[in-house]
Amino acid sequence: MTAPASRSASASASAHDVDTRAPILEARRLVKTYGRVVGLDGVGLKLYPGEVLAIIGDNGAGKSTLVKCLTGAEVPDTGELLLDGRPVSFKRPQDARAAGIETVYQTLAVSPALDVASNLFLGREERKRGILGSVFRMLDTKGMRAKAGRELAELGISTLQDVTVPVENLSGGQRQAVAVARAAAFGSKVVVLDEPTAALGVRESNQVLELVKALRERGIPVIIISHNMPQVFEVADRIHIQRLGKRAATITPQSHSMTEAVAIMTGAQTA
Question: 263 burial class (0-12, 13-18, 19+ CB within 10 angstroms)?
């Protein structure tokens, strides 16, 4: 299976072309250990503007640890992180969010009792202008709903036209769309998706993949962690392969087949 021919200009560059650009996010020689267990062993990664970078690997390969170090959920023992070419140090996820890195985890952090708009602005609620907001601390519900509607429309999410619907009434795919839309709305630099289609059916998975493509079209770089190889080869511009805590290779859907990617992932083949 090969990747679709229609890609955005920035995303369709070859691996050689991509390497000529400055990465928006870069990890250098990351090491993370848990006692005697080595989670990361000198891992490097580069994410370029307007691309989808997939991270794949067997269980225990270090995928989750790598992403946690990139997003502030874990602090690497040694190594360096750079954002827009400048060194950064994330001690907690809030630090990464403040820097413009939004993460959507497999266990969605949505509040079922709240409506779609309230979930998009969860933790970032906007207050009314003037004395109503500053003194009486009244939320600007109307304004947040309007902005939520525009954000969903820009991402082409047609299944969520009513932003006043409680999230508990939505399907799994729609809930994932809400989480992705929230990340897109506030992730000014990078959006990270951890197994975004793991618990979804075929139709809902396709909707999420369309969201990933929409983010790329908006110029927002995306890191996606997935075990689903056909989906990876459909949306990824480059594929970072983890094996035994190390980066085994970085390939593209044009340079390698799915079979070759799996062989590298399992150690049966080198890049």
Answer: middle
pTM for the full predicted model: 0.83
Domain boundaries, the chain: 15-100+187-266
Sign of CA dihedral 197, 221, 223, 14: positive
For the chain, strand residue ranges (E) read: 25-34, 37-47, 52-56, 78-83, 86-88, 101-104, 190-194, 222-225, 238-243, 246-251
Fold of the domain spanning 15-100+187-266: Rossmann fold (3.40.50)
Stretches where the chain sits below pLDDT 70 are 1-19, 106-109
Token pair listed for 90: 């994330």
pLDDT tens, residue by residue, 209-246: 988 998 999 899 999 999 999 999 999 999 999 999 99
